[in-house]
Amino acid sequence: MPRDPSKAAHKPRMRVFHHKSRDGCRTCKDRRVKCDEGFPTCQRCRRGHRECVRGTVEILSCPGTRRDALKYAKIPAEDSATNDSTALDYFIHNTLPFMRQSYSSPVWDYLLQLLSDKVPVILTVAAAIGHQHRALGDRPPDGADYAAAIAYNAAIRAQSHQLFKSNGSDVVHALSCFLLIVLESLHGSIANLELHLRPCVYILKQEHDPNMQQEAADMLNHISSLIELYITSSMSFGPRELYSTSARKMLQTIWACRPSADEVVRIERSLVEDMVSRLDTWMPAAESGCDLPAGDPDTAVPTLDALQAQESALDAAAENYIETAQGDVKSRAYCGFAVARSLLFINAIRALSELPVSPAVTLATYQRTVDVCEEALAQLRLCKSKSPANASNAFSIGLGAIKVLFCVATRCKDFYLRRRALLVLETCPRREGIWTIEGARFHAMAIIKAEEGRALQRSPDRVLNNSPPEDWQVRHSEVVEVDGNSMMRLFWQSDRSRALTIEDIPISNQLISSPLDERAPTASSSEPRHSSTPL
Question: How far, CA to CA in Å, does 243 sit from each of 20, 117, 279, 451, 473?
Fold first, then answer.
């Protein structure tokens, strides 16, 4: 039909231009939702209790707008760190004592020497740690979060610049990577933490010059010791995390760099290798819902004998280590935590191997684990520190106490001992790696509530007599996201089948109390310091 010339031609409607921001977090990008670009945690991740991940790649990329470019241009990576004397003073007088309290090492004095020599990358990263640590306090100064975010970006850029310098020192590289690991621990990002672990391990493996001076080689060895301690105890201690390929490769690389470890560490390494090898057959079956591998009767007795021999060797090595330390409380505490981790590995190997172990033997190992942790924490408190362990920004490096006590509270079958483990947990430093007391307590109480609620429904008499049924316990747990909601996924094992069943329970924002708290007496009358919920 011909067009009517009397009518004006229709002008096409132009789309309204919307600026597309690329500064959102990776979590919102993966979920395909709009991010408000809040820093360090966006509003969506804060409301959904999700990890707000900003990768190093995004931070190192060019600013998205001219205003951003001007903002970042005012923060040179190497020069401005020396001007932030407040953050550096806070790092030296408040943060560094926590590091010294956790583990005795000549690295800390070497770090102070580099700060006095004004090594740019060390100054920048140390200032960023000081900013982040100060922001975690009970009464942080105004703008502390913003200052921590700016300092965090400057630290990433300084580290990237340092790694590409041809005349850099391997020791400075490794130490700056380790400091970034500490920074990411306080920042709470495990994804970015792993990004800094990889180049650090690479430096220890590939760039170690055989012609290096002995003093520098010894310092590299001390730094690698700290990194190994951190990976084993703080990041990848659980069976689920150790099953990941990246964590295993990093541990194996560090073990290759440090073949001459002390006997306590050597035994712990062998237990980790044994546990991880058994996970190769256990985890695929658990994830697919197939029957779990049954224990081999022919190898049960030799395996139990070998574990008993390792436990005896561990005791002897610990006694020898303590005698060599000559009363140093930090060394005694370090040895105690290593023994506690190893004891937990032994029980994990027994469980994964489906060995016919007496419940009394397993309970005795858990009991000793809690005793050792309690004594080691008491030794740690003997060390003079300006900041108390229960401060909101208190943290530790390489103890593993939070994760050990969390595992006892969620795996032990004795109702009283698991509550005692939670009570001892309250005496730990508030943060360790990506773990916090509050997060561990919340996760543990959610599992305890689900387990004891199920046990009460099936056999209330046995529960009140501290003798629960066989199929009441969660074999594995993890936090997942289902339809945008945070859920705790529980893997149950039925008494009629060896296969695991999966149950998702929602995670509420409030602390969870157990059904048994109103029906059964607790093991201790003392209340935890940081919890308003009875344990």
Answer: 39, 41, 7, 25, 22
- Separation of alpha carbons 223 and 205, rounded Å: 13
For 261-299, the pLDDT digits (tens) are: 678 878 888 887 777 777 766 666 655 555 555 656 666
Closest CA to 416 of 376, 365, 456, 467: 467
Q: What is the mean pLDDT of the chain?
A: 70
Give pLDDT, residue 177: 84
**Residue 73 pLDDT more than 90?**
no
How many CB atoms are located within 10 Å of the residue 28 CB? 21
Mean pLDDT on 83-89: 76
Q: What pTM does this model have?
A: 0.67
Which H/E stretch holds residue 468?
none
**How many CA atoms lie less than 13 Å away from 392 in the CB half-sphere?**
8
Domains and CATH numbers, the chain: 20-54 (4.10.240.10), 63-211 (no CATH)
pLDDT tens digits for range 193-208: 667 666 666 666 655 5
Contact 530, 431 (CB under 8 A): no
- Which residue(s) pair with 503 in the sheet? 490
Closest CA to 416 of 518, 516, 529: 516
User: Strand 485-493 relative to strand 474-482: parallel, antiparallel, unpaired?
Assistant: antiparallel
Are β-strands 431-432 and 435-436 bridged in parallel, bridged antiparallel, or unpaired? antiparallel
Instruction: Give the distance from CA 316 to its chain's centroid.
Output: 29
For residues 449 and 515, is the Cβ–Cβ distance under 8 A? yes
What three-state secondary structure class fits 25?
coil
122 touches 145 (CB < 8 A) = no
Maximum alpha-carbon separation in the chain = 105
Residue 518 vs residues 146, 352, 418, 452, 525: alpha-carbon distances, Å:
44, 33, 16, 12, 14
**In which order are the strands placed within the sheet that holds 395-396?**
395-396, 431-432, 435-436
What is residue 504's DSSP assignment?
E
| Cβ-Cβ contacts under 8 Å for 360 (sequence gap 6 or more) | none
- Of 377, 501, 394, 399, give the one whose Cα is nearest residue 438: 394
Q: Are 256 and 205 in contact (CB under 8 A)?
A: yes
Kindly tell me the number of DSSP H helices and DSSP E strands found in the chain.
22, 6
